[in-house]
Amino acid sequence: MKEKLRNSGVDILGDVPDKCRAAEIIDVVNNHQFALTKREGKWELIESAERKRVEEALKESEARYRLLFEHMINGFALHKIVIDDKGKPVDYIFLEANSAFERLTGLMRINIVGKRVTEVLPGIENDPADWIGTYGMVALTGKDARFEQYAGALDKWFSISAHSPSSDYFVTVFEDITERKKAEEALRRAHDELEKRVAERTAELAETVNHLQEEVIARELTEEELRESEKRISRLNRLYSVLSKVNEAIVRIHDPEELYERVCRITVEDGLFAMAWIGITDPESRSVIPAVSYGDSGGYLDGIRICAADVPEGRGPTGKAAFEGHYSICGDIEHDPRMLPWRDKALRHGFRSSAAFPLHAGGAIIGAFTIYGGSPQVFTGEEINLLSSMAEDISFALDNLNREARRREAERALQAETAERLRTMEELREKDRMLLQQSRQAAMGEMIGNIAHQWRQPLNTLGLTIQEVLMMYELGEFSREYLEARVNTAKEIIFHMSQTIDDFRNFFRPDKEKVPFKVNRVVAKTLSLIEGSFNSLQIRIEVDATGDPVINGYPNEYAQVLLNILINARDALLERRIDNPKVVILMSEENDKAVVTVTDNAGGIHEDIMYKIFDPYFTTKGPDKGTGVGLFMSKTIIEKNMNGALIARNTGEGAEFRIEV
């Protein structure tokens, strides 16, 4: 029996009971991994040889799969799902994981096997990816899942396959696709950037096309504007030429009628207008009467009626300009209702537009300057400004012509008045010469008295010398030496008297031109002429000089002024019988001026006549003692001839005359 069992591949672990047939035992062993038999009251285990082969095969297979499991490139892990009392997945437990799992996740098996995922990765239950819910569905339903997901806790992307080998269990096989995701993200970004750039470029191209279209339109408009601008510039150049030639005519022409004719001719020929005319307003009828026209070969102005008033005949451009004083434009004669009184006639003559500008003279409106164009809307803003300027220039020229006429009339009147003034001035100069002559004659009378004083002492001395010579001769003491001494004395006396004559003669000789002179010398020369008279009257003269002032003027006339003042002081001292009479002369320089003051102690000048002492022919002396021209001529000499000042005032003791030059 045992042999049969062994031949059947059954190892006999104990004795096989004899009661069992071999066929029965073989059948049991073949159908089971183990068989139990009872022998001598003991049970024995019979193990199938196939079982051993299977186990050995399983061990070999397990070794191969373990080797494969450990060397898999992909991560592998076995888990068990954890559910709550309502059957909802709330966690899962790590049961097994391979080396690739550790490498890809950074989680070590020793640290995770047997632990819940919420322990290993805290907060994963709140991950938007819902890992627990996804794996719970696989474990509980048996449905496989394949997906790609970002693991925020590990900061990686994984491609995951999940499978449930049995209920409540699931296996995950995954690979790290982070780099691929980054590449895809970069590719997506590049694609988006490319799409963006394409869109931008497309928009730019569209914008460029729009710009090109706009530029084409703008260029066409610009070209049209340039053509219009060229026409406008050509018109303006013509008007500038008109304005220039009109200004030239204004400068050359001095007759209004001739100027009107030239202005109208230039306007038509150079400005290429159809017709131009100037009308003057009649003050009584207020009609604008044509004065000059050019280009009116058809007689448009013949019998025309235009008024500078608010009437139908005054509402056209010419009437309004002449009435209101500012320009008026009609751009289209055919359709402008204001032109009704003249429309048909104007159209027959080819006039389609007109402009009128007021003319002024002497601040008043005297008429209008009217221009006609051969087409509508000829007069634009710039042309109107230029034509207005031309009308203003014409008005200015008319004012100048009026002023010139008034000037010529004024010149004639002025010439007559000037001739009359010259005669009057000649008479005044003659009077001045007479006054000066009278002053000189009065001074000469004084000088004759002074000469008498000057010569009386020398003549007495000369007489005594002659008597002494005769007496010495009679006494017998006459000698040649004595005679020579007396002759020399007589010569000195005669020379002194001759010098006195020269001084008086020079004093009355008029100066022909200004010369620099020292004030001290003129004062000394003047005193030398009158000191004899003053000494005989016991009038003391005191002279005090500070510095040595110099004057550029007429020394003889200056001396005459001093002489007049000194003689007046002498007469006042004699008239008032002053005890210890004196005259003080002070000379100094003040503010670059030579100042001489002559002060007496005669009591001063009465205040009620102080303002009249320099008037001609005013004197306080009797008619036999004064002419009243001395101080008048003195003031004239100092202030008019020498640009100085002669001032009189009272001091404590008398009068003071101050000469500043």
Question: Your description of this structure?
Answer:
The chain is α+β, with helices and mostly antiparallel strands and 661 residues long. Among the domains are: 2-53, no CATH class; 72-176, Beta-Lactamase, CATH 3.30.450.20; 253-379, 2-Layer Sandwich (Beta-Lactamase), CATH 3.30.450; 510-660, Histidine kinase-like ATPase, C-terminal domain (Heat Shock Protein 90, 2-Layer Sandwich), CATH 3.30.565.10. Helices cover 52% and strands 20% of the residues. The protein is built from 16 helices and 20 strands. The chain has helices at residues 2-7, 22-31, 49-70, 99-105, 109-112, 117-120, 131-141, 178-252, 256-271, 317-324, 343-348, 381-474, 480-507, 519-536, 555-575, 630-641, and strands at residues 10-11, 34-39, 42-48, 75-83, 89-97, 145-151, 156-163, 169-176, 275-281, 288-294, 328-330, 353-361, 364-373, 515-518, 540-545, 550-553, 582-590, 593-600, 645-650, 655-660.
